[in-house]
From TrEMBL:
Keywords: Amino-acid biosynthesis, ATP-binding, Chloroplast, Kinase, Nucleotide-binding, Plastid, Repeat, Threonine biosynthesis, Transferase, Transit peptide
Lineage: Eukaryota, Viridiplantae, Streptophyta, Embryophyta, Tracheophyta
Protein name as catalogued: aspartate kinase
Pathway: Amino-acid biosynthesis; L-lysine biosynthesis via DAP pathway; (S)-tetrahydrodipicolinate from L-aspartate: step 1/4; Amino-acid biosynthesis; L-methionine biosynthesis via de novo pathway; L-homoserine from L-aspartate: step 1/3; Amino-acid biosynthesis; L-threonine biosynthesis; L-threonine from L-aspartate: step 1/5
Domain ACT: 414-492
Pfam families membership: AA_kinase, ACT_9
Transmembrane parts of this sequence: none
Source organism of the structure: Carya illinoinensis (Pecan)
């Protein structure tokens, strides 16, 4: 039978008293008071009252506290099987940070155990934890849904991806020693849903969101059950019931302002009533009109984490990945990519927007608004310092921060037939895109022409199919001569705007040496980003050459920069 321990307060020589602190353990434990958050004076004794088995092999230690007013916070470390578990009584500020673990950090039972150990190895933190779906579950669910549309009701149960998802989650609960019932009902519902899709022969965006939500709903339930079995109090939350209110843009919903107070109220209230580490589903929300489950776009758990960080005004948002932080380029394109130690919110947002998979494009917004530092860390290598993202950073020595590649982009050259004046021309072109609901990425304009790119794989918008492209061209041809150029790539250089001339000089030198023609160039209003459009076939080679030149050759070492440009301020006038 699980032993439970309720430590009901702290007796002090003076009037000091800490309000109820509840500690549970299902194994014999040793309890040490870790710290008391107000000033420490004399010696006192932790005492237990009322219910619970705080006896036998569990021992108390004399502790030092001395808060005359009786406020403050008790924290204790329970030691058992080398796992350290930390509890707090919630007096004072409830939570210190958000810890978000992505699918890559949660691929198996073993990884879940490691994540629990990692999470509990920060005794000074009281985290809110956000989890994504295990491993590649979201992709598998989407493929299962597509297959269900055409496989027939009688074959829906046999869909390979459904079997994969079932097997992964059942194996994980078995290996973690938690009850199968934690996921069995959800797996049953998932199978029923796929049969429903097969019967209807259609997969709407709304159904897609409901379908993928099973991933996060299962991973969080398994993790909470596991934490409870090792004696850690944790509570599962589905974001759509926690207060995440979104637009009804299924597969790409926006978080509404009402979310912040709702989430704060619920998490705070529950903690005060019954402290337990909150484990929240990433990626999910509830549409404000439909009341249905929505998702925040692929990789949306990062946004869940920063939203909670802002809602609770926390000290830090930690995003745990499978890489040593934000890197100088995508490591799958160039293995010599290196971690970037420090980024601003603007740099990180630009990097994510232009396609670096490592962060969700919208995720920096709440962190920036709340001015809460974001730390990107590696759950496979927690010692690595990772990347710290803050409002400002010292840009004196910064030249280029990161190179981002987005492939398979469509480009349009639009030249006015001069039927409209200059102002009319630009506005007409953009209204055509607006009417068709197509987002434009990179733009370069002159008086009578516009070059721009459309992104067919944009994560948060629908796919551009050929028919739609033909329609765009048809509309534009009413006012312009249009040239559609497919299979292009955008290479985005995220860096120090104060050094744009130096960056461009170097870029053109590298591209010329590699015989690459740049088809379009654009510097965003944020000045953090310079984008170059090249052919898809040349893009990866370009990125490698640029990476070598900016990060590996030593040409831009700090000494050289100091000697050539002082502290960079010489460029600010440009
Ligand atoms: N500039 C970059 N820095 C770091 N990782 C990048 C970058 N560009 C692409 N990636 C890819 O992003 C992956 C991490 O993001 P993601 O898969 O969303 O993690 P998680 O699922 O854990 O949230 C890395 O494994 C890496 O392959
Ligand atoms: N599971 C969702 C949400 C998410 O954020 O995942 P990850 O943290 O693994 O990128 C997805 O795959 O899009």
């Amino acid at each position: 039978m699980a032993a439970s321990l309720h430590a009901h307060g702290v007796e002090t020589p003076g009037r000091g008293f800490v309000r109820e602190s509840k500690l549970w353990s299902n194994v014999p434990i040793t309890l040490h008071l870790l710290r008391f958050s107000t000033s420490i004076a004399s010696s006192s004794r932790l005492f237990c009252a009322g219910s619970g088995n705080f006896s036998g092999r569990a021992t108390t230690k004399l502790v030092k506290i001395g808060d005359k007013k009786g406020g403050g916070r008790v924290e204790a470390v329970l030691k058992e099987d080398k796992i350290e578990k930390r509890f707090s009584d919630g007096n004072g500020k409830d939570f210190t940070c958000v810890m978000k673990f992505g699918g890559s950090s949660l691929a198996s039972a073993e990884r879940m155990r490691e994540i629990a150990t990692l999470m509990l190895s920060f005794p000074e933190e009281r985290p809110v934890v956000v989890l994504s779906a295990m491993g590649k579950t979201t992709n598998k669910l989407l493929v299962a849904g597509e297959k269900a549309v055409s496989c027939g009701v009688s074959n829906a149960s046999e869909i390979e991806e459904l079997s994969f998802v079932k097997e992964l989650h059942l194996r994980t609960v078995n290996e973690l020693g938690v009850d199968r019932s934690v996921v069995s009902a959800l797996l049953e519902q998932l199978e029923q849903l796929l049969k429903g899709i097969a019967m209807m022969k259609e997969l709407t965006l709304r159904t897609k969101d409901y379908l993928v939500s099973f991933g996060e709903c299962m991973s969080t339930r398994i993790f909470v059950a596991y934490l409870n079995t090792i004696g850690v109090r944790a509570r599962q939350y589905d974001a759509f019931d926690l207060g995440f209110i979104t637009t009804d843009d299924f597969t790409n919903a926006d978080i509404l302002e009402a979310t912040y107070p709702a989430v704060a109220k619920r998490l705070h209230g529950d903690w005060v009533n019954d402290p337990a580490i909150p484990i929240v589903t990433g990626f999910l929300g509830k549409g404000w009109k439909s009341g249905a489950i929505t998702t925040l776009g692929r990789g949306g758990s990062d946004l869940t984490a920063t939203t909670i960080g802002k809602a609770l005004g926390l000290q830090e948002i930690q995003v745990w990945k499978d890489v040593d932080g934000v890197l100088t380029c995508d490591p799958s394109i160039h293995p010599c990519a290196e971690p970037v130690p420090h980024l601003t919110f603007d740099e990180a947002a630009e990097l994510a927007y232009f396609g670096a998979q490592v962060l969700h494009p919208q995720s920096m917004r709440p962190a920036r608004e709340g001015n809460i530092p974001v730390r990107v860390k590696n759950s496979y290598n927690p010692q690595a310092p990772g990347t710290l993202i803050t409002k400002t950073r010292d840009m004196d020595k910064a030249v280029l921060t990161s190179i981002v590649l987005k492939q398979n982009v469509t480009m349009l050259d639009i030249v006015s037939t001069r039927m409209l004046g200059q102002v009319g021309f630009l506005s007409k072109v953009f209204s055509i895109f607006e009417d068709l609901g197509i987002s434009v990425d990179v733009v370069a304009t002159s008086e009578v022409s516009i070059s721009l790119t459309l992104d067919p794989s944009k994560l948060w918008s629908r796919e551009l199919i050929q028919q739609e492209l033909d329609h765009v061209v048809e509309e534009l041809e009413k006012i312009a001569v249009v040239n559609l150029l497919q299979h292009r790539s955008i290479i985005s250089l995220i860096g120090n705007a104060q050094r744009s001339s130096l960056i461009l000089e170097k870029v053109f030198h590298v591209l010329q040496a590699n015989g690459v023609n740049v088809q379009m160039i654009s510097q965003g209003a944020s000045k953090v980003n310079i984008s170059l459009i090249v052919n898809d076939t040349e893009a990866e080679q370009c990125v490698k050459a640029l990476h070598y030149s900016f990060f590996e050759s030593g040409d831009l070492s700090e000494q050289i920069l100091d000697a050539e440009f002082g502290n960079g301020s010489a460029f600010s006038a440009i």
